[in-house]
């Protein structure tokens, strides 16, 4: 990691679904950039504790908090605990997400609700609690020129339709309009709300798409950069969006996808 430990010094962050994959990398990069980090996890207590321990060994500050982000009471309790431990919060990374894939006509209401509940409603619930604290506290110029920053982890599937994943693609499309509407409403209060839309990143959520050479070769046909992304590609973008370096960026989706949304199927000789 090449980040200054002063970039986010004095800031307090909460990353949801941070016990694995992209969330874990974001939490580690925020901590390496000087932020105190609350690691939210759903069921992987040991993994979350390991990340906390690693951050502490590197002289950082971290705690782990169990919560299901789709449950309002658990989200409220998670924010209460974060505020109790850290005093306030400056950065929320809405990362927790899951897939429940199915052909459309076989998709059950439970599969639909589970994905919308975590990926979209979970982001709404966390953003609302974070915004309340940002508004209560306001800007502390020695900490950041913003009253708070929210980063929503979306997906290229917020614009690319995805057969067999209608619940997931719908949740990500919803994040785009939710993120921009919150950004529009809260911008006058110096709160910035942005999204990162990852392309294909090597994590547990999409293991079947890259774990064999055959699967990876098929996937690479969709990626002009000709490599599957790694979690650091996303974490670096998250640090920038969390920092004052991106102070004039609000209501934007940053696609970090190796060109996947350039529709490589349309190249003449690619
Ligand atoms: P992952 O499975 O490693 O991470 C998802 C995390 O969310 C896990 O830690 C899981 O425990 C947590 N989670 C699931 N349900 C939860 C709940 N109810 N409450 C709290 N936490 C919960 O996979 P990942 O790839 O790191 O995914 C992180 C985010 O990135 C997701 O929003 C995903 O949609 C998005 N994304 C991933 C890719 C990719 O290629 N990996 C691409 C685009 C978008």
UniProtKB/TrEMBL annotation:
PANTHER family reported in the protein's UniProt record: OXIDOREDUCTASE, SHORT-CHAIN DEHYDROGENASE/REDUCTASE FAMILY (AFU_ORTHOLOGUE AFUA_5G02870), SHORT-CHAIN DEHYDROGENASE_REDUCTASE FAMILY PROTEIN
Q: Does the UniProt entry include the keyword tRNA processing?
A: no
Disulfide bond as UniProt keyword: no
Family from the record: Belongs to the short-chain dehydrogenases/reductases (SDR) family.
Q: What is this protein called?
A: SDR family oxidoreductase
Q: Which key words are in the record?
A: Oxidoreductase
Origin superkingdom:
Bacteria
> Which range is the signal sequence, renumbered to this chain?
none
Q: Which one of the record's GO molecular function terms can you name? A: oxidoreductase activity
Pfam families linked to this entry: adh_short_C2
């Amino acid at each position: 990691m090449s980040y200054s430990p002063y970039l986010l010094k004095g800031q307090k962050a909460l990353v949801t679904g941070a016990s694995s994959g992209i969330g874990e990398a974001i939490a580690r990069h925020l901590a390496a950039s000087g932020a105190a980090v609350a690691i939210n996890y759903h069921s992987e207590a040991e993994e979350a504790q390991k990340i906390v321990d690693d951050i502490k060994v590197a002289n950082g500050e971290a705690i782990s908090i169990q919560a299901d982000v789709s449950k309002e009471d658990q989200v409220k309790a998670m924010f209460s605990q974060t505020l109790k431990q850290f005093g306030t919060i400056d950065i929320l990374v809405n990362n927790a997400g899951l897939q429940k894939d199915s052909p459309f006509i076989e998709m059950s209401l439970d599969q639909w609700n589970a994905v919308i509940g975590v990926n979209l409603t979970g982001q709404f619930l966390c953003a609302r609690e974070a915004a309340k604290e940002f508004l209560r506290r306001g800007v502390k110029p020695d900490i950041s020129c913003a009253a708070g920053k929210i980063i929503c982890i979306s997906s290229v599937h917020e614009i690319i339709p995805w057969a067999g994943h209608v619940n997931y693609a719908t949740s990500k499309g919803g994040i785009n309009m939710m993120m921009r509407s919150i950004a529009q409403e809260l911008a006058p209060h110096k709160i910035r709300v942005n999204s990162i839309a990852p392309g294909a990143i090597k994590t547990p959520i999409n293991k079947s798409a890259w774990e064999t050479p055959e699967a990876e070769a098929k996937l690479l046909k969709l990626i002009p950069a000709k490599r599957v992304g790694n979690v650091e590609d996303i974490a670096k973008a998250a640090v920038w969006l969390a920092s004052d370096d991106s102070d004039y960026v609000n209501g934007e989706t940053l696609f970090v996808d190796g060109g996947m949304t350039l529709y490589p199927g349309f190249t003449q000789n690619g």
